[in-house]
Design goal:
6-stranded mixed β-sheet, 6-stranded antiparallel barrel, 9 helices, 22 strands, elongated
Length: 448
């Protein structure tokens, strides 16, 4: 029985393999046929058989404001974590979270009693040693008089003089202890080291504060002025340094995340002294007065670095530029509605436009969209994208206006909707007239 099943299984496997191969060959044939059809259509379009719809822009000559665009992060000028310099219980808090404080303003107070007691002890020791010093000085004065009368040995005078110096050193040591105790007492009052905005409190009232605490009491950030750090590619450094010479202060603008609204004006503060080898960029820092509090630490902004103006420059939209093996080029639209490739030499970029140093003339039209299907000599049809977008917007707004008018028309022509109202109003008739006119186009369509 097993001998008869083995040939049948082998035949089934052969049939399955052949079927898979046939399906694969058919799929490959369909794919190649589809690719050839697509390539033939593209070649026909390239030969000028079918005009390709494109958008175009005119090459213009004008004064161009040069600027570099970058992404930046707002950073505070100073960020300080306020720590207590002594240990103690937090007894009083003199700030509210989010408050703007001035440098030297009292923020919090620790329990001062231990430090007040230490200061009192140090002052008492100082008074005691000052009294001993005064007594030693009086004795020394008497010994000098007795020595002048040869009534006392010189050794006694010298010993007393040394004792006076000893007490003077003790008094100075006591004075240092008093000053240190007074300083510790002052440290029990925590003051703002800078002017800035208070953050959220790091510790609550009544807790024991230690000088070694890592979180501190509160964090203060200075927001006026404030800085923005941004990065530029190394190829832009030459433009920046040229614009900065000689000692020019470059203007910087900060725009919102969507790059639609300008937030603040500032100036370039510094350029970093080395490149980032991983990204090929260099960091720059700009400073803003931030009087209106538009900028906030760690905020993301778009940076516009102004490099001055270039007069009488030719510009094209940057999207028109293509990059090939021979360099940059554009497609120029000729009078016969065909395109030709024009090699160009590009200059600085200003916003959405690029300055053209060589290769184009003012008034020529260059293709800005539909570039992927173009070849040398391709026939094109220039579409006014602005008018097209305006027409589409108007068409989309028309139904909305009709819907807004319909309630008013219904109120004025209520009799037109109700035949029993007498049919006197004739105004509804034009509104209903197009309804019978709609069916006529359908019979020809069905007939064909």
């Amino acid at each position: 029985m097993s001998d008869t099943l083995t040939p049948r299984r082998g035949a089934r496997r052969i049939i399955i393999v052949v079927s898979v191969l046939v399906v694969a060959l058919l799929a490959f044939w369909w794919y190649r046929h589809h690719q050839n059809a697509t390539a033939s259509a593209a070649a026909a379009a390239a030969r000028g058989g079918i005009p390709i719809a494109v958008g175009a822009a005119t090459v213009i000559r004008h004064d161009v404001e040069l600027e570099l665009l970058a992404l930046g992060t707002v950073t505070s000028t100073y960020t300080v974590t306020v720590h207590s310099r002594v240990d103690g219980q937090l007894e009083k808090v003199h700030f509210t979270e989010g408050q703007v404080v001035k440098q030297g303003q009292l923020l919090a107070e620790l329990d001062p009693r231990p430090y007040q007691a230490a200061l009192t002890q140090a002052q008492g020791q100082l008074l005691r040693d000052q009294a001993l010093l005064r007594n030693a000085e009086l004795d020394l004065t008497r010994y000098h008089k007795l020595q002048e009368q040869n009534s006392i040995a010189k050794q006694i005078v010298d010993t007393q003089d040394a004792l006076v110096h000893q007490y003077q050193g003790t008094v100075k040591l006591d004075q240092g202890v008093v000053d240190n105790a007074r300083l510790q007492l002052d440290y029990s009052r925590i003051s703002a080291p800078i002017t800035g905005r208070i953050g959220l409190s790091q510790i609550d009232l009544g807790n024991i504060v230690h000088a070694a605490d890592t979180n501190g009491v509160v964090i203060i950030t200075q927001e006026q002025p404030i800085n923005v750090i941004f990065a530029l590619p190394e190829v832009s450094l030459d433009q920046v340094f040229t614009a900065m010479h000689p000692n020019n202060v470059l203007q910087v603008e900060a725009w919102d995340r969507d790059n639609k609204n300008k937030l603040s004006d500032g100036s370039l503060l510094a350029v970093d002294n080395q490149l980032n080898t991983l990204t090929g960029t260099v960091n720059l820092k700009a400073r803003f007065a931030n009087q209106g509090q538009q900028l906030f630490p760690n905020q993301f902004v778009n940076v516009h670095l102004k490099l001055g103006a270039q007069h009488d420059a030719l510009t094209v939209p940057t999207v028109a530029l293509q990059l090939g093996s021979a360099g940059s080029y554009v497609y120029v639209v000729k009078d016969n509605q065909t395109v030709s490739i024009a090699k160009v030499t590009t200059g600085p970029v200003s916003g959405n436009d690029t300055i053209i140093k060589q290769g184009l003339q003012a008034g020529e039209k260059v293709v800005i969209d539909g570039l992927d299907k173009l070849r040398e000599g391709s026939k094109v049809k220039v579409i006014d994208r602005v008018a097209q977008n305006n027409a589409a917007a108007a068409a989309a707004a028309a139904p909305a206006r009709g819907q807004r008018r319909r309630p008013g028309g219904g109120g004025g022509g209520g009799g037109g909707r109700d035949p029993a109202a007498g049919g006197g109003p004739t105004a509804p008739a034009p509104a209903t007239a197009p309804a019978p006119a709609a069916p006529p186009p359908s019979p020809p369509a069905s007939a064909n």
